[in-house]
Amino acid sequence: MLNNIENELMIGLAGGLGVDFDLVSNEIAKHLTKAGYHVEVIRIADNFLQRKKDSNFSACYWKMQYGTKQRQINGNDFWAKKVINKIFSARQELSQKYKKIAYIIRSLKNKQELELLSNVYGRNFTAISIFSEQEVSLKFLDKKLSLGRLTITDAQQQMRQINSELQLSVDMDIQSAIELFGYDLADNNKTSDQQKLLRFLLSKDQEETHPELKKYGQNLFKCYSIANYFVYQNKNLTRQIKRFVDLLFNDPFAEPTFEEYFMFCAQAAAYRSLDLDRQVGAVIVNSEHELVASGFNDVSKVGGGHFAHHDHPIYDIKEQQVDQRDFKQEYDYNHKYLDQIANNIAKKLHLEQQEQAVLREEIRGITEFKRSTHAEMSALLDASRRGVAVRGCTIYVNTYPCHTCTKHLIASGITKVVFLHPYTKSKAREMYLGMIKHGLLLDEAAQPGFIIFEPFLGVSPNRFILTFANDKDTRLELENGRENGKPTAWEINENSIPRALKERRPHYYICREWAIINNNLPDMSTFYR
Ligand SMILES: [Zn+2]
Q1: How far is the CA of 403 from the centre of ligand 1 (A)?
Q2: CA 403, chain centre distance (Å)
């Protein structure tokens, strides 16, 4: 049963309903085949019952609701557990026939699914997120579902039936779900019912907003950004996938793109933050691709910059300034103040317990009372302290900017923001609708009056070191066991081994896999007697 598993690869794909997964997985398979891999595609939706007489709309909607229902009963990583089971049982037969097996898993829809696969399979698992332009997604879905003359009223009827079958509460009405997602429907009256239904499905897939199902529903936003590699579904998909596979197989002459390098720098800056919430980092880069400033989110000190420890073990001196950071003060003012507001309102309006909870949920997104300087602002101020101009520069930030930073970035003359993680509290999109253009590969010069917000592409900072660290052994050719000073010739062939598996510890994940399948972790107590 454990034949040929040491070269196993698991590749998880995350992307929206509008992504052409066949196209992406065929492309990956094509390149893996060159490395002698047998490719097995695992579709999570294969576990779903097929319902007869479903229209395309109801089939699609049913899949989402059924997936959510199962997560509600069995936990948010339920579908990843199913995948692990599938791999475990498929392996028995496949490993007799093939020396190298790659499993392509499509498609991941929430963070917990991705995390479980990553925890179980470690470096053998790689997650790829696929970005598809909204217009392209709508077109693709339109073709796939061919909704014909389906009206919103009919669709709502089908939804009600599905929800009663699955014993789920009534879903939000389509119009308000679309609005909540922030689609600009200024042309509401002209938009056809079918177009609205497509938008509804796309938004539900990206992020479930139904208050009761939110916790268990699909949340592509949160899953998408923690992947290891990001591709853009455009005409250069083939080149992007080829590069991904080359990197996976240790191409010794692959170098990071500017984007990958600067996002890695932004992530490094983020790790300096001791903020009590998330760690955010940013770097500002000029048009010559020179890094001109950096910042991270934390409390600033008088005289400029941030507080920092001076308690490095090699120095005698300790903190040179009285440290005023939140963790030293032992509270986060924003949380404390929001609590105060909620208590005051609750008291004045005599709110019940449940109403108080609603109130707290509503004001949770307010960030204005943080003492920390945000990373973007910190980077701008870093530049200003040293007299470095930032007009026309790009800022790389590991999290989508908040509305406050956005207005400062606009004021500073920064023309492009490249971001990695989403930030749902940010109102930037709505507040500066006429000033921000979201998209990829936009020509800045052709967009006067706009600041460009661009999602990150390429190798995530979480795989940067593993992907680009190299040693000279792999770069120098060996002749009779000795280096002859020439660069090694490299191409993928039947003998290629993925970089992550170079120092192989065969079978190391089998016990973790087994634990998931049997729904419990092995009893470790015998080791600690
Ligand atoms: Zn901010």
Answers
A1: 7
A2: 21
Q: How far is the CA of 453 from the centre of ligand 1 (A)?
A: 14
User: Considering only CA atoms, which of 132, 149, 173, 176 is closest in space to residue 57?
Assistant: 149
Q: For 479-492, how does the pLDDT look when each residue is reduced to its tens digit (9 = 90+)?
A: 888 888 888 888 89
pTM: 0.89
Per-position DSSP letters for 430-445, written without gaps between them: HHTTTTEEE-SS--GG
247: its two tokens: 């990197």
Q: How far apart are CA 209 and CA 321, in angstroms?
A: 46
Å from CA of 355 to ligand 1 middle: 29
Among 493, 513, 515, smallest CA distance to 92 is for 513
What is the tens place of the pLDDT at every residue in 61-87? 999 999 999 999 999 999 999 999 999
Give Cβ neighbours of residue 7 (< 8 Å, ≥ 6 apart): 37, 99, 100, 101, 497, 498, 501, 504
Question: Closest Cα to residue 305, out of 320, 318, 291?
Answer: 320
Give pLDDT, residue 187: 62
Length of the chain equals: 529
How crowded is the C-beta side of 77, counted as CA atoms within 13 Å? 16
Q: Is 521 helix (H, G, I), strand (E, B) or coil?
A: coil
pLDDT, one tens digit per residue, over 14-31 is 999 889 999 999 999 999
Note the pLDDT tens digit of each residue in 432-466: 989 999 888 888 788 888 999 999 999 999 999 99
Backbone phi, psi, residue 451, to 5°: -100, 135
Query: In the structure encoding, which two tokens stand for residue 278, read together?
Result: 């998330």
Segment 110-122, tens digit of pLDDT:
999 999 999 998 8
CA distances from 160 to 65, 155, 177, 199 (A): 11, 9, 15, 19
What spacing in Å lies between the alpha carbon of 282 and ligand 1's midpoint?
A: 11
Angle between helices 258-270 and 375-385 (to 10 degrees): 100
CA of 377 to the centre of ligand 1 (A): 7
CB 418, CB 395: distance < 8 Å:
yes
Output the CA 429–ligand 1 centroid distance in Å.
13
Structure tokens at 258: 């500017």
Q: Which residue has the tokens 């240790």?
A: 250
On the question of pLDDT at 525 being above 80, the answer is: no
Question: CB within 5 A of ion ligand 1: which residues?
Answer: 374, 402, 405
Whether the Cβ atoms of residue 150 and residue 194 lie closer than 8 Å to each other: yes
